[in-house]
Specification:
single chain; mainly alpha; 6 helices
């Protein structure tokens, strides 16, 4: 898995001329960092007498964030995997009508698959944001700024992943299917923006 490498190795690969990891893998990694920051807030809250009345809620958020973090790590690799068939599809011959038709079918399928992965990434990040909302509201006050950093990371990852949806849906021939994917991405962008505005605003109000 890509994120089993040292962070410096992952960054070096990201900065190379290789097509993967690219923006999608970077978004998944940043989303995993957002989840990890949420877990940090939770771990700094559990066991503290001051937060005993919300401990079970915090433990629930911690367990969910662990699952989401692991899923985002998996999506770092899944994003790279979906690029390969797309790359192959672009390289198919198109000299004859049969070849053109075959290339169009294969490319359409590859574009759809390459749109689904970043959309799944966006949906996962929204769940991370939901957990960060709880942790910002009820977690340790000493770590509230980390919840703020987490929500900013999450929104960056969310919006970044949407670009990987749109760049692929733009080339799809099935415009009805493309618009359905775009609409879902737009809804997630709006939902994420609402989370970011609320959580970041509340963090600032508490620390300034």
């Amino acid at each position: 898995m890509m994120l089993e490498k040292k962070a410096t190795d992952f960054i070096d690969e990201l900065s190379s001329a290789k097509p993967v990891p690219g923006g999608g893998g970077a978004c998944a990694a940043v989303g995993a960092l957002a989840a990890a920051l949420g877990m940090m807030v939770g771990n700094l809250t559990v066991g503290k007498k001051r937060y005993a009345d919300v401990e079970e809620e915090i433990k629930g958020a911690l367990a969910r964030l662990k699952e989401l973090k692991n899923r985002l790590i998996e999506l770092t690799d899944k994003d790279a995997e979906c690029f390969e068939p797309l790359s192959r599809a672009y390289g198919l011959p198109k000299e004859t009508q049969e070849e053109k038709a075959h290339k169009e079918r294969v490319l359409e399928k590859a574009l759809y698959e390459a749109s689904i992965v970043p959309l799944e990434l966006m949906e996962t990040i929204i769940e991370v944001m939901e957990c960060l909302k709880l942790l910002e509201e009820k977690g340790s006050r000493l770590a509230v700024s980390d919840a703020g950093v987490g929500i900013l990371f999450a929104q960056a990852a969310l919006n970044g992943a949407s670009l990987n949806v749109f760049i692929n849906t733009k080339l799809m021939k099935d415009r009805e299917k493309a618009q359905k994917l775009n609409g879902r991405a737009d809804d997630l962008i709006q939902e994420g923006a609402a989370f970011q505005e609320k959580i970041y605003g509340e963090v600032l109000a508490k620390i300034r």
